[in-house]
Amino acid sequence: MKIQALPFLQEIASKLPLAVIVNNFILMEIDGGTSTMPGDNYCTNSNKITHCKYVVVFMILLHVFTIACNEVRKLNYISFSEAVKAGEIIRGRIPDYLPKGSFNIHIIYDITSSETWCEFEFISADAQILKNALEIEANFLPARLQHIKKPDSWWPEFLGDNLNIQTINEKGFSPYILEEKCYQGFDYTSLLFFVIDWKNGKGVFHRTICQ
What we know:
Helices cover 26% and strands 25% of the residues. By secondary structure, it is of the alpha+beta class. The radius of gyration is 24 Å and the shape is globular. The chain has two domains: 5-69, no CATH class; 72-207, no CATH class. The chain has helices at residues 5-14, 46-69, 80-85, 127-134, 165-170, and strands at residues 19-22, 26-29, 72-79, 103-110, 116-121, 174-181, 189-197, 202-207. Strand 4 and strand 5 (116-121) form a beta hairpin. Helix 1 (5-14) runs antiparallel to helix 2. Mean pLDDT is 77; it is low at 1-40 and 63-68. The strands form two sheets. The protein has a six-stranded antiparallel sheet.
């Protein structure tokens, strides 16, 4: 989605006779050189009115980009190579240890939080490669994996509220949990929760928000 933010804000700046509310408690009027901000009437001087306009424009710009970033991307790829070419591994949306022969890949990615949901299929010849990467099957679920919101129609119904290992196994899936570092030099981590149907060559994973 392309946002023409700068021309939009320039137009507002040139026509700003109004008040702008920031964080619901700062109110400033620059029409006629008056101000209702706490403290001195900073905007009463004509030179400072121009400065105030730039402050308002900056606050609007910040608000616009906050809204722009608060969105979810839905991506679909026929093959793993197509997803790689689109930069999904570089962006960290899918791990590089997914089988190279994976196909029918669906990704939902929350830009604000980096929370991710993914569905993929793989051929039987790649099953062992994936098993080696996922290592040990999980025998319990930490609290942040017990309630996963359903992002789209393709996400399995049983992977939702009150999730537990028994339910996953009864549906013919095997659960795996891997931990990822979120930021270099910080202790925040996210969990990659894989649920795999080895018999039918299907899998999904959920990347949690960093904590």
